[in-house]
Each structure stands twice: as C-alpha cells, then as structure tokens.
Specification:
Length: 266
DNA sequence: AAGACCTGCAACCGCGGCTTA
DNA sequence: CTAAGCCGCGGTTGCAGGTCT
C-alpha cells in the first residue's frame, strides 16, 4: 500500500525546536486541542511536519509532564512492568503519570537495562542473595513473574475458588457485592468478586503468579481502593466463558487487562 | 589544555493499525 | 473491497555536555 512520507515536504524545519516554535505550538494546541497533527503546523504557521509537532507536544510541551528525577518507586515499577510487558513503552508510560514513553524508553536504554543486566548476573552468581539497589531502598525483583492464569467469566459458576487464605475482604457501601483479595496455595494472588447471593461459587477473578515476591497492588503500584470499578467496568460482556474488556479503570488499564487475557488464556 | 570518548536525551524514521473515501 | 491518509509506536540516530586521558 503506497503511503506518502509524512515529512517529505522540503523547506520544513528539522532538529531542535526553538523557544518561539514551542510557544507557537503550545498556544495553538491550548486553543484548538490535540489531534489533527497535519493541520496544526499549517494553521499555526509552523514550518514543521505534523509528526514533529505531535512528538514535541507529547514529550515536552504538554503541561502535566514531569521531567527528570525518576524516583526509586518509578524505577522499580518500570522494571517490573518491563518484565511483564517488554518494550511496550506506551503501556508502561500509561502506568506512570506524567512520564512519556520516550522518556521511559531512553531511561531504560541508558540506565535500567544495564542495572537489570548487572542484577541478573549477580543473581546467577549468588542465587540465595538479593541484591539491593544502592540508590533505592526498594529491591529489584529479578524473579520472573508471569500471569499464570486469567479468569474473566460471565458465567462465574463455572469457576472454582481455590483453597486459599483470604487476605482482605472489601465491602463497597454502594455495592452489594464483596471483593476478596486472596493468596492461593500456589503463590498467586487472586482478585475475586463474590456476589452476595449466598452462592459462594459465584465469582470472577484475576490470577497472577507473582513468584512469591509481591502483591497485585504493589506490582501495579496502585491501590485497589475501588475494586468494584474494575469488576463493573471491565467484566461487562463475554461470549462463552471469555469476557471483553471495555473501558480503562483506575485499577487496571484496558491494555493490561487485555494482556492478561492474551497470555493467560482460558 | 585539548582531543577522545562516553552518556543522556531530543528528535527522526519507518512500520503497522485504524479510518475514511 | 481497496487504496490512501493519519496517527501512534518502537527503534535508531545525532548532538550537546560531561568525563577521561
């Protein structure tokens, strides 16, 4: 399929952006909003291609962007998310408010990849010791984590609850259902929604094998303070025993839920 | 002091997915 | 159904500033 290159036009500026170009672009976008990147430079009077404008806005000019000083928590989260998602920088950036995919990608390539590599070598040489990141109190978890199973079922009765210890019961005042965070015998943390209809086998859940090194909220750096949004928003509809993820929630992003589904299988 | 080398980061490029005509 | 166009993503490049020799 033939596609004309985005920036084929001659006479367009390239390279670093000047302060005046930045001002023109941000003023224009504040006035007219994002999107339609091809139109922006023409209408704003910038000699830049749309792609360049989009990149400059998303990675630098956008008001809520944090710059520099990636914290230990953020670093730890990037490492763990990278283990789960690989080089899917936009997904990883989605879990780090104010951080851009480009910044995370650069940080990984310049700093973290090396650090993780060194840590893995250390683990191979000292399997019983846990290397502590010198700059961070948080440990770097090198143990492989994978999604061991995923259960999204519109027919909850088809699922059997594991023999397990209930870690936490959560009751939403505005919702008759009860959520339980469960640690199972096989090292997984399960997230279940027991419907309050005296049918204990009626539930839905997500299972992640954490390799014994964490919990779901720690893993995703979120508090499941409103788990019912997760259940109600995500577990909306399915064919057979699969559920379709619908909208992102504060619990899991749509992408991560889809990732669970794709690697967890039925 | 100066050149070589290294590092971090902004920006570019090409590709693929999605939408539109 | 297909071609064309747009957008977003990930890989890569190139430059500027810092460090080393």
């Amino acid at each position: 399929m033939g596609r004309s290159p985005c920036c084929s036009s001659t006479g367009l500026n390239r390279g670093s952006w000047t302060a005046s170009e930045d001002k023109i672009l941000s003023d224009y976008i504040k006035l007219h909003g994002e999107g339609k990147w091809r139109e922006h430079p023409v209408k704003a009077g910038l000699k830049r291609c749309g792609k360049s404008c989009r990149l400059r806005w998303l990675n630098y000019l956008k008001p809520d962007i944090k710059r520099g000083n990636i914290s230990c928590d953020e670093e730890d989260l990037i490492i763990r998310l990278h283990k789960l998602l690989g080089n899917r920088w936009s997904l990883i950036a989605g879990r780090l408010p104010g951080r851009t995919d480009n910044e995370i990608k650069n940080y990984w390539n310049t700093t973290l990849a090396k650090k993780v590599h060194e840590n893995e070598n250390f683990q191979e040489e000292n399997p019983k010791k846990m290397k502590i990141n010198k700059e961070c109190v948080n440990e770097i978890r090198t143990k492989a984590m994978r999604c061991s199973r995923t259960h999204f079922s519109p027919h909850p009765q088809q699922m059997e609850p594991p023999r397990s210890n209930v870690v936490e019961n959560i009751q939403d005042p505005g919702n008759p259902n009860t959520c339980r965070l469960i640690e199972t015998a096989d090292d997984a943390f399960m997230f279940y929604n027991h419907e309050n209809n005296n049918n204990e086998s009626s539930f839905m859940g997500v299972g992640v094998n954490m390799g014994g090194s964490g919990n779901l909220s720690g893993f995703f750096n979120v508090e499941f303070s409103d788990p019912f949004n997760l259940i109600n928003d995500q577990m909306v509809k399915g064919d057979d025993d699969h559920t379709v993820c619908s909208t992102p929630t504060q619990g899991f992003s749509k992408e991560i839920m889809e990732h669970f589904t794709s690697i967890g299988g039925k």
